[in-house]
Amino acid sequence: MRTVVHVLRHGEVHNPDKILYGRLPGFKLSELGRQMAKAAAEALADRDVTHIRTSPLERAQETAEPFAAQFKLTPELDDRLLESVNRFEGKEFGVGDGALKHPRNWWMLRDPFTPSWGEPYKQIAARMFGAVESARDEARGHEAVCVSHQLPIWTLRRFVERKRLWHDPRVRQCALASLTSIHFDGDTIVKITYEEPAAHLIALHPDARTAKGA
Q: What residue stretch is flagged as signal peptide (predicted)?
């Protein structure tokens, strides 16, 4: 029995102060982000989607809205799809500026392999894969959509591909409103595919490539 679970990163967020917003409430999609969510939903318009679940954060729920309308489904909230915990949450974050220019914060960077500044990669991978398995079970023989965030999705992908979980954030293949799709034959993963339905929108708005806290 073939089942596909599409893990979708949310669209662009309205974040004029360019902080690392993480799990903070009140960060919603920008108008561009809503267009991205619609483009992602349209990319799956002819697919057999029977189940939708989403991170409870506003930006993820808003990204799920066009999918819910298109497939006439009510999204299920799943805390396992949440953004990862990060001790730099609420701060400006970058090399040479923001929180990183203050020596008092450097101790949080002491261990990039766990990592020391936030939720352990192993914990992220376990909860994300649990959410995917639940979605697979709900959509047996069909397709499901799980809306989540960049770091959790990339950690999940590396876990499924049996790669080390620590990595260089600059090489993540997980653009805004992208789909990382896990294909199952029964309970066995047979392949992973990736697509960027909103790539044309990002190309028109280069600043969207550097979205923080996503």
A: none
